[in-house]
Amino acid sequence: MNKVLFFVLFAFQLQAQDTIVFSKIDAFKRNILEVSYGKPLGNLANKYESSITTAFYMRTKIAKRQFVDFGVELSGIVKGNSINYNAGNENIRLDGSKSALFLGFRYTRFLFQSKNENFHIESNSGIGWKYLHYSKPEDEIYDDLDLKPTLNTIGISQGIKFMFYGFGLHCNYQYAPYDLFNKKVEKNFGGSLINFGLSGSWNF
């Protein structure tokens, strides 16, 4: 009788172990690399022809299918044009910009995700610090001039991304009013830009 009871209890124990449900590991991609081609719009189109941008973001989950991405975007300017700049009582001509930087974060939300989680569509809403670099003219007459003509402002962005197995396409619009905090450049300097390119994500 004791042996029968022992085997019954043993069978119930095995069945209980088989019915244990383990929570699924949330293995979203934490590291994001983007390469894109940018085209300035409106008045900003008079400042340079285009840009090539490399961006790196680190993703943190805040809710189901919702994330915050922190990162930096470094842009190389293609064919920057000269601009007018007020330096004290003197108006000088700066050479075209050669680089730009965006440092900030964006709120990401999955608009759609397949059941196997291999494909998703996400929206990205960003805000941060935008930097457009200009240099003092190399002419000797400006050697003694204390001039740092770099333009800084707040930038916002809105984009969409299509991802499949960690790789995909993205497109986003950025707006950065460079004349907002700097009155030494022309009014309505411009700040609209559209980027489109490739994106990859992975975990270390």
3D architecture notes:
The structure is a single chain. By secondary structure, the chain is mainly beta. It has one domain (28-202): Porin (Beta Barrel), CATH 2.40.160. It is 8% helix and 57% strand. Strands 1-2-3-6-7-8-9-10 form an eight-stranded antiparallel β-barrel. It has a two-stranded antiparallel sheet with strand order 4-5. The longest helix has 17 residues, at 2-18. The radius of gyration is 26 Å and the shape is elongated. The N and C termini lie far apart (57 Å).
Task: Give a short overview.
With about 200 residues, the chain is mainly beta. Helix content is about 10%, strand content about 55%. The protein is built from one helix and ten strands.
**What do we call the CATH topology?**
Porin
Number of helices: 1
- General shape: elongated
Number of domains: 1
The count of DSSP E runs of length 2 or more, i.e. the number of strands, is 10
| Secondary structure category | mainly beta
Distance linking N and C termini:
57 Å
Uncertain spans: 1-12, 14-22
Residue-averaged pLDDT, rounded?
87
CATH architecture level-2 label = Beta Barrel
Strand content: over 45%
Widest sheet, order of strands: 1-2-3-6-7-8-9-10
What does the radius of gyration come to? Answer: 26 Å
Broad CATH class: Mainly Beta
